[in-house]
Design goal:
alpha+beta, six-stranded mixed sheet, four-stranded antiparallel sheet, transmembrane, DUF4245 domain-containing protein, transmembrane helix
Length: 222
């Protein structure tokens, strides 16, 4: 029996700095906005870097949320649970992590522009799951999707975890040799972001469930 390919949940990353928190942009090599030019993409919220008051609001929100969750973290720690506040590593690229947050960087016709819009959690159903896998022996990288049986909402889900029968679809394929590098990105929540660089000079910033998952994907694709 053939071994099942290793699969990892992935999606476009989103900013963690207050100026770009939960936001993402799509750029060409001159940092122009290419989002309107991505073929077949549903409309999304326009990207903008937050100003002073917007950043202040995000800082206040973070402080209040941390204070409210602190008793839970203490209790979970006492019980030996892994629950803890998400941690973020060192800033590496201010221009791409604070002043802007591109998740696609590509010129006309370059590979990163072909990535499916379903990787954007703000454009898809909250029940849709997108996964990355490497198939052997053909060496194809694939992105697939399926609908999950989760219950709840985009902001709070419980239960589920199974595939809706007949909902799985292949969204994107690429020979692995077209990928020239995968770099884990420290400046992300739980250090779970990673950057895929393609042979034509384009790249994409994605995220997965954990720092271990990002490292496993890097090892798988390189």
């Amino acid at each position: 029996m053939d071994k099942e390919p290793e699969r990892h949940r992935v999606e476009f990353a989103s900013g963690s700095a207050a100026s770009v928190e939960n936001r993402r942009s799509f750029r060409d090599h001159e940092r122009n906005d290419i989002e309107p030019d991505l073929p077949g993409w549903p409309p999304g919220q326009a990207f903008a870097v937050r100003g002073f008051f917007g950043k202040l609001g995000r800082h206040v929100h973070t402080v209040v949320t941390t204070l409210l969750m602190l008793p839970l973290y203490i209790i979970a720690g006492a019980l030996g649970s892994p629950a803890s506040p998400d941690k973020r590593g060192k800033l590496e690229e201010r221009e791409n992590e604070v002043d802007d947050f591109p998740v696609i960087w590509a010129g006309v016709g370059e590979t990163a522009r072909t990535l499916p819009w379903q990787l954007d959690p703000s454009r898809r159903s909250w029940r849709m799951v997108t996964e990355l896998e490497l198939t052997e022996p053909d060496g194809l990288v694939r992105i697939t999707s399926y609908e999950d049986t989760a219950r709840g909402s985009r902001f709070l889900a419980w239960g589920g975890g199974e595939k809706v029968p007949g909902s799985e679809a292949v969204l994107w394929t690429l020979p692995r040799e077209e990928i020239v590098g995968v770099e884990t990105k420290r400046f992300s929540m739980a250090e779970s972001d990673f950057k895929i660089s393609f042979r034509d000079g384009s790249w994409a910033r994605l995220t997965t469930n954990s720092s271990d998952g990002a490292r496993r994907i890097a090892a798988l694709l390189c």
